Amino acid sequence: MIEQAIEDLHVAAFDPMPTPREVLDRIPMTEAAATTVVQGRETLKAILDGKDHRVFVVVGPCSIHDPVAGLDYARRLKALADEVSDTLVLVMRVYFEKPRTTVGWKGYINDPYMDDSFRIDEGMAKARQFLRDVNELGLPAGTEALDPISPQYLGDLIAWTAIGARTTESQTHREISSGLSTPVGFKNGTSGDLTVAVNAILSASRPHSFLGINYDGGVTIVRTTGNPYGHVVLRGGDGRPNYDTVSITLAEAALTKAKLPANIVVDCSHANSYKKPELQPLVMADVVNQIRLGNKSIVGTMIESNIEAGNQPIPADLSQLKYGCSVTDGCVDWATTEKMLRDAATLLRDVLPSRRG
Ligand SMILES: O=C[C@H](O)[C@H](O)COP(=O)(O)O
Ligand SMILES: C=C(OP(=O)(O)O)C(=O)O
């Protein structure tokens, strides 16, 4: 028998991970959190069905790295959500998994201590705790589904899911989406290609059978029924925005041709603002203006926002981290966020009720 190893040549270790059931038992759903999740999902579905005239806004940090600052942000957002609730439905961006262009910190689940210790076991529990805390405030949460196993640990606390620009074309992510309990926004590709997002909605709306794990961590064949609440998220690409009226009209046409509802979310960040956070208010204002001028397809927007503006590199000495400032993409600060949302609510208040018929 050949003596040379032929398997796991590039694997350093297989470390244990608690099962979803163990984590759910440790951090169980509460009545208050469940109410927020259910109401959040139902409201978003009603908006996508054209039955609720409001616009939803997925707003919050590019990534969560400090739960204390994250909850500070969530409390502010909840107060603002109540203030604008006749016009806007605010969903907090609670992103724990970052898809990197090459390499970099991959988020709070992957490396919760930001020291390359990669304690995914602890990160998952901390992420669940944070999500439960946010929901208990009465604020629904939106996240990016990146890892195919994570939804088993966190999915019950999520009201809206994004599939990112780097994974919209991935069959695995389309399969997962077909079984998710939330509406799913598919980003256009990083090149700006919208076809991948339209194809993703079509794929995710159908039943799939694929490999996954159950709550006890056993390998299973997951059989899904299909998700009817897929929609596109325009985030720009290839160095060009795609929130202008021409791009929106082309997106509407692409959805109609695919016999899909013309439901569009505009991401004010990423390539739509050339990754310059200070440009996000211009994108938001433009989108609000389009709605005021009669647009019927824009159902939501996304804003990357934090307590402090901009972003910071992760320092070797973590005590040097600036409180409430992003360690991934740059964000608008809290004062700007309040202004963006209050202005939008004021400008949309009169036009929304008659908008979607
Ligand atoms: O929103 C987050 C980032 O744009 C995404 O994770 C890619 O980041 P990167 O290009 O810095 O790796
Ligand atoms: C990674 C993100 O966006 P995109 O997939 O559009 O790059 C994000 O919103 O964090």
Automatic annotation (TrEMBL):
First-level EC class: transferase
Gene Ontology, cellular component aspect: cytoplasm
Keywords: Amino-acid biosynthesis, Aromatic amino acid biosynthesis, Transferase
EC number(s) recorded for this UniProt protein: 2.5.1.54
Pfam family, one: DAHP_synth_1
GO biological process, one term: chorismate biosynthetic process
Annotated DAHP synthetase I/KDSA domain residues: 46-341
Record keyword Transferase present: yes
GO molecular function term, any single one: identical protein binding
Reactions catalysed, as given in the entry: D-erythrose 4-phosphate + phosphoenolpyruvate + H2O = 7-phospho-2-dehydro-3-deoxy-D-arabino-heptonate + phosphate
Function description: Stereospecific condensation of phosphoenolpyruvate (PEP) and D-erythrose-4-phosphate (E4P) giving rise to 3-deoxy-D-arabino-heptulosonate-7-phosphate (DAHP).
Family: Belongs to the class-I DAHP synthase family.
Record protein name field: Phospho-2-dehydro-3-deoxyheptonate aldolase
Native source species: Oryzomicrobium terrae
Lineage: Bacteria, Pseudomonadati, Pseudomonadota, Betaproteobacteria, Rhodocyclales
